[in-house]
From TrEMBL, chain A:
GO molecular function: ATP binding; ATP hydrolysis activity; transmembrane transporter activity
Biological source species: Sinosporangium album
Cellular component GO terms, alphabetical: membrane protein complex; plasma membrane
Protein name, entry field: Putative ABC transport system ATP-binding protein
SMART domains reported in the protein's UniProt record: AAA
InterPro entries assigned to the protein according to its UniProt record, in alphabetical order: AAA+_ATPase, ABC_transporter-like_ATP-bd, ABC_transporter-like_CS, ABC_transpr_LolD-like, MacB-like_ATP-bd, P-loop_NTPase
ABC transporter domain residues: 11-242
Automatic annotation (TrEMBL), chain B:
Record field: transmembrane: 49-78, 99-124, 144-169, 190-213, 225-258, 279-300, 320-343, 364-388, 408-425
Organism field: Sinosporangium album
Subcellular location: Cell membrane
Name by which UniProt lists this protein: FtsX-like permease family protein
Organism lineage: Bacteria, Bacillati, Actinomycetota, Actinomycetes, Streptosporangiales
Record carries keyword Transmembrane: yes
Domain ABC3 transporter permease C-terminal: 58-176, 324-433
Ion transport listed as a keyword: no
GO molecular function, one term: transmembrane transporter activity
Protein family: Belongs to the ABC-4 integral membrane protein family.
Membrane topology: Multi-pass membrane protein
Highest taxon above the source species: Bacteria
InterPro entries according to UniProt: ABC3_permease_C, Macrolide_Exporter_MacB
Keywords: Cell membrane, Membrane, Transmembrane, Transmembrane helix
Length: 246, 437
């Protein structure tokens, strides 16, 4: 599929650079990265630690601002948005799942799930919330607080939150990093379903080749640059590329 | 190794240590200067009337100091528990953690006591000069530099700090590394039985003292007992604070959650799941309102009961002296709010990353602070009213007291401002700063 117009993508980064620190301690986390994530696709971003994969995710999701370049989500350049507009973008168009600390500790699982909806001053549909929590395997735990849930359960609440308002894009940073294999696969299957069933665009940072096989494509980063990509990858192919990029 | 660890704790958490340091420092200054003045007037003679007043103010400042320092330290400990759990999980023995906590507390308390003692001298001179200037003291009050006030003041600072950190260390060690690391937002036991016991005993003591005061025949004697009752009731309210804060907070938060659903829901949930954190902010508010309310309006009540039109010097100097203590409690409202809020940077960033708007986030924090201050103010008002009604009854035989609405509202405004400033300034970086990096 050939796409030239950035607006054909759900998320498009154009010539994005991000450096941290100043002077002699300056580190370039991203160097002139241009990449688009097609609508409804599931992309894994891989690379050695320090390669800039988390920075890519943070810039693409509007959590961080690049020094140069533009990031477009839903056709808008988010690097120019003010804080209030960014907040609206985050609760309506973007879902995030982090490796840890995904949930507000004082809110129950159900309250955490509906948080973006409530922040947007909309009334969540209780039946849909219950149904969603049931689908992520948390039936009967709606009223539990994060401290009463395991790491995997917290992760699944975060995914339920990201699915509830059906945002166009779902960003996940090492969503299975803290989970055991079985729970990890359940979480990945949910992300796959978000792309297949609801046409959501999923961008996931991972270091686990097995997790990356759930994706349609894999991007490999080294030293802040995209150095390679694979479509419909197998574990062996990914492992070979990762080995070669070191 | 231990000193390196202790120092790195201080360095990574400067605001919390600064707040604790200031709290102990001011406590030592207050107690030390009161001691110096007592030593100065103890020769008797003309200064005897001053002696009684200075004695009362010393008792109050000692009480307030221990109260505020222990509250502050328990807040500090809540913050540090994670760090201690982390150290245990990387292999520190319980003994080493205890040692670390003790060394940290000793260093902070010793430094704060030294500075506090140094500041006590000019402060005592200042108070002496004011008492002389307004004509309350017939002669100059000699501020005698004797060692005893310094020793007592430092002891108050050191003992309160050490005792609180020992208890904290024991808890940190006993709870084990994993339990501490699991960030339990829902505090398990909100009223452990020792607290319940202390609270009930203090409540009973306060009621008995009020009853005793109401049987007095003259106002002066009754006032001393009422003061004791007010202090006992403050201890009771503080010990039982978590339960009261949760119940009152829930009631007050209901209309807020209706007016401003998202921000209100966040404020309400935070109060309901972390009553201890809210109680540590409500406590100094309660203390300020209870003490200032009692002293200021006791003077007004006495004056009205006696049919006087204007106040004599002796009648307003007591509220003025207590006022300087109240300044300390107001600072501790600010400190406590700042400390409890700064621990929540991660939570505030998470809220932003799921789409809370800047104004919404500010409102959630403002609501939470307002409700917490309101709970403290309600408790403080109830305590002061109980004391004042008893005084009015002794003076006039009726359940009555005199008050000034503008002064009362001014008192509430000061506490509210302290709470809001503490909450907003300490969260500024988390509210507006970068989300990552």
């Amino acid at each position: 599929m050939i796409m030239n117009d950035p607006d054909d993508y759900a998320v498009h980064l154009q010539d994005v650079s991000r450096t941290y620190g100043k002077g002699p301690t300056e580190v370039a986390a991203l160097r002139h990265v241009t990449v688009g994530f097609p609508r409804g696709s599931f992309t894994a971003v891989m690379g050695p630690s320090g390669s800039g994969k988390s920075t890519l995710l943070q810039c693409a999701s509007g959590l961080d601002r690049p020094q140069t370049g533009s990031v477009r989500i839903a056709g808008r350049d988010i690097t120019r948005l003010r804080e209030k507009e960014l907040a609206e973008l985050r609760r309506d168009h973007v879902g995030v799942v982090f490796q840890s600390f995904n949930l507000v500790p004082s809110l129950t699982a159900a309250q955490n799930t509906v948080l973006p909806t409530r922040l947007a001053r909309r009334r969540p549909d209780p039946a849909r919330v219950r149904d969603l929590l049931q689908r992520v395997g948390l039936a009967g735990r709606e009223r539990h607080r994060p401290a009463q849930l395991s790491g995997g359960q917290q992760q699944r609440v975060a995914i339920a939150r990201a699915l509830l308002s059906r945002p166009e894009v779902l960003f996940a940073d090492e969503p299975t990093g803290a989970l055991d294999r079985g729970t990890g696969h359940e979480v990945l299957a949910l992300l796959r379903e978000a792309a297949d069933t609801y046409g959501q665009t999923v961008v996931m940072v991972t270091h686990d080749p097995e997790a990356a096989t759930y994706a349609d494509g894999v991007l490999f980063l080294t030293d802040g640059r995209i150095v390679d990509s694979l479509r419909r990858p197998s574990v062996d192919q990914i492992a070979a590329r990762l080995g070669g990029s070191r | 190794m231990m000193t390196t660890l202790a120092w790195s704790n201080v360095r990574t958490n400067p605001a919390a240590y600064a707040a604790t340091f200031t709290t102990i420092l001011l406590a030592v200054t207050l107690v030390g200067s009161s001691g110096l003045l007592i030593a100065g007037v103890s020769d008797g003679g003309e200064l005897e009337a001053v002696g009684a007043l200075v004695g009362t103010s010393a008792v109050i400042s000692a009480f307030v100091s221990v109260f505020v320092v222990s509250g502050m330290l328990s807040l500090h400990v809540m913050r540090q528990r994670r760090a201690w759990g982390l150290l245990r999980s990387v292999g520190l023995t319980p003994r080493q953690v205890r040692l670390l906590v003790t060394v940290e507390a000793l260093v902070v308390a010793a430094a704060a006591s030294a500075v506090g003692c140094a500041l006590a001298v000019p402060y005592a001179h200042g108070v002496a000069a004011v008492l002389r200037r307004v004509g309350f003291a017939p002669t100059d009050i000699p501020v005698a530099i004797t060692p005893v006030p310094f020793i007592v003041a430092s002891a108050v600072g050191m003992v309160a700090t050490l005792a609180a950190s020992r208890i904290a260390a024991r808890k940190a060690v006993r709870s084990g590394p994993l339990e501490v690391l699991r960030d339990s937002a829902a505090e398990q036991r909100i009223l452990p039985w020792p607290r319940a016991l202390v609270g009930t005993a203090a409540l009973a003591g306060g009621v008995v003292l009020l009853d005793l005061a109401s049987r007095q025949t003259e106002g002066g004697g009754a006032m001393e007992i009422i003061l004791g009752a007010v202090m006992a009731l403050c201890v009771a309210a503080s010990a039982l604070g978590t339960v009261v804060v949760r119940a009152l907070g829930y009631l007050l938060a209901a209309p807020v959650a209706w007016l401003d659903p998202a921000a209100g829901m966040l404020a309400r949930a935070s109060l309901a799941t972390q009553p201890r954190r809210a109680a540590s902010v409500a406590s100094p508010v309660m203390l300020t309102v209870a003490l200032m309310g009692t002293f200021v309006f006791a003077a007004a009540t006495t004056q009205t009961a006696a049919g006087q039109a204007t106040m004599e010097v002796g009648e307003w100097i007591a509220p003025a002296l207590v006022g300087s203590t109240a300044l300390y409690t107001v600072i501790s409202v600010l400190n406590a709010t700042a400390m409890s809020m700064s621990a929540r940077a991660q939570e505030l960033r998470l809220l932003r990353s799921v789409g809370i708007g800047p104004a919404q986030l500010t409102r959630a924090l403002v609501w939470e602070s307002l409700i917490t201050v309101a709970v403290g103010a309600l408790l403080g008002t109830a305590i002061a009213a109980a004391g004042l009604l008893t005084l009015g009854r002794v003076l006039t035989g009726r359940l009555w007291f005199d008050y000034s609405a503008p002064q009362y509202l001014g008192l509430l405004a000061v506490c509210t401002a302290a709470g809001l400033i503490g909450a907003l300034v300490s969260t500024r970086k988390a509210r507006r700063g970068p989300l990552v990096g």
